[in-house]
Amino acid sequence: MRLFSAGSAAGILGLFESPAARAETHLTPSYAVGMPKVTITNVKAIATAPEGANLVIVKVETSEPGLYGIGCATFTQRAFAVVTAIEKYLVDFCVGKDVDNIEDMWQSAYVSAYWRNGPVLNNALSGLDEALWDIKGKRANMPVYQLLGGKCRIAVECYAHASGPTPEAISENVKKFMDQGFRHVRIQQGGYGGVGTMELKPDFKEAGFGRQSDSFSDQHTYLKRVPKMFEIVRKSCGEDVELLHDVHELVEPMDAINMIKQLEQYHPFLIEDPFSPENMKWLKTLRANTTVPIAIGELFNNINEFRDPMVDQLIDYIRIHISQIGGITPAMKVARLGEWFNVKTAWHGPGDTSPVGHAANAHIDLAIKNFGIQESHFWSAKAQEVFLGCQTYKNGYMYINEAPGIGVDINEKEAAKYPIGTKSNWTVRKSDGTIIKP
Ligand code: MG
């Protein structure tokens, strides 16, 4: 009798039922059933340069026919090194593993070389990370931003780039972007990063020092020109447009501080990279002397580098090159930390971030509370033949392809038409030949 009772209780609890019988008696709704396991069958690097800048993409292929993911692994200046890291190490690390465990894959890949950090391995890791988010989105039949919490805004507010040889020419370019609906424009006089002094003849070239192709920056001229540029552009374009500028770590820290103080009267939206990553302690002095908003971080390798400037509220915008720090997974951690301290995002998004990387930027931009502003890039027709589903712009906003996953695909045949190159050395000197951080 006692045994019978025990058997009945066990039967009721389902202890002796076969899995099939249990499934029948305890009907689990389809949405609550775990998805079948999918494993990685291959990882490959796709390198292409449709606009001249080297772009590297990781493609993760899976055990489910037709299911794959792609991620941005673009380190333009050392693209072949990233390709080697992917082809020689990432393939062996990944094959046979579960595509669903993104955090575990990130953490284990990150430490798998023991010697970690650095742009080469972080970019390879980013390619894997973003590809796994792409796969997860495709499996869930949702764009990645939905997996990050859903939309916080209708679209991604962007800034455009206006440059030119004179402040007057820059003003005209700013007005063109304002006519297109942009409310934010970054202004740079002369070459990229504000070198801006190409017309002056440096002594090192006369002396045959370095290479004739080396760039030259006259720091004195630069420091005088930037406030003048702000004055003229502000006067010509009015108060409605937000102006941004990138110092590109080109000048001495105290000179940068003095220049930024002069810009205060033109109320810049943000000033980017006043110091190099080696000079972060200067942020305290800068903060004590001016209230101009500061963006920093595109050269940081490790998410821990953001902690102190964010927690101490020494910066206003986190300037991350997402593939440089290892992809969506670490970028989300930094973004969420920023929310605690009212530090906003301004992800790096030039032409040497692939369209896949731009989409990764935008998925995070859409999903986080503390989004600040997004850098824009307008892809050429060639690039859009290689990358399908590139972002589009309307009225100063970026819109992404709403397809499941990252929303961008790659045409490998088209990509192969534009091989990457090795000439990616960036050398900037003072007139006497001394190297300046570019
Ligand atoms: Mg920059």
How would you describe this structure to a colleague?
It contains 16 helices and 18 strands. It has 438 residues and is an alpha/beta fold. The chain has 2 domains: 40-143, 2-Layer Sandwich (Enolase-like, domain 1), CATH 3.30.390; 146-403, Alpha-Beta Barrel (TIM Barrel). The strands form 4 sheets. Strands 4, 5, 7, 8, 9, 10, 11, 12, 14 and 15 form a 10-stranded mixed sheet that branches. Strands 1-2-3 form a 3-stranded antiparallel sheet. Strand 7, helix 10 and strand 8 form a beta-alpha-beta unit. Helix 9 runs parallel beside helix 10 (253-263). It is globular. The structure holds magnesium ion. Magnesium ion is lined by residues 246, 248, 272-273, 298.
Q: What is the makeup of the main sheet?
A: 10 strands, mixed
Note the beta-strand portion: 15-25%
Intertermini distance: 86 Å
Low-confidence spans? 1-15
Radius of gyration, in Å, reads 25 Å
Mean of the pLDDT scores?
A: 92
- In terms of structural class, how would the helical and strand content be classed? alpha/beta
In the residues, how many domains can be counted? 2
CATH superfamily of the largest domain: Enolase-like C-terminal domain
- Share of helix, binned: 25-40%
The count of helical stretches stands at: 16
Q: Write the CATH fold name of the largest domain.
A: TIM Barrel
Bound molecules: magnesium ion
Describe the SSE topology.
Elements: H1 2-13, H2 19-25, E1 40-48, E2 55-62, E3 68-72, H3 79-94, H4 102-111, H5 119-140, H6 144-147, E4 156-164, H7 167-179, E5 184-189, H8 203-206, E6 215-216, H9 219-237, E7 242-246, H10 253-263, E8 270-272, H11 283-289, E9 294-296, H12 304-311, E10 317-318, H13 328-340, E11 344-345, H14 355-367, E12 374-375, H15 381-386, E13 387-388, E14 392-394, E15 397-399, E16 409-410, H16 412-415, E17 428-429, E18 435-436
Parallel strand pairs: 4-5, 4-12, 5-7, 6-17, 7-8, 8-9, 9-10, 10-11
Antiparallel strand pairs: 1-2, 2-3, 4-15, 13-16, 14-15, 17-18
Helix pairs in contact: 3-5, 4-5, 7-9, 9-10, 12-13
Bound molecules: magnesium ion.
Magnesium ion (MG) is lined by residues 246, 248, 272-273, 298.
